[in-house]
Write a structure and sequence with these properties.
Helix content is 55%, strand content 0%. By secondary structure, it is mainly alpha-helical. The longest helix is centred in the C-terminal third of the chain and has 14 residues.
Length: 49
């Protein structure tokens, strides 16, 4: 799964009412981290595999 696909998915779920698991806010982020961090994680996982 690409970063763009993950970002699009998270954006859609936020539109539907989901909230960040740590911040408890309806924003596009993952466990309190911005999408820049999410991109770094996805890139690192792709490199490792």
């Amino acid at each position: 799964m690409s970063y763009e696909e993950v970002r699009d998915y998270i954006e859609e779920t936020v539109k539907l009412g989901s909230v960040d698991g740590v911040l408890k806010e309806q924003i596009v982020s993952v466990d309190g981290f911005g999408m820049e961090t999410e991109k770094e994680i996805i890139d690192a996982l792709k490199e490792a595999v």
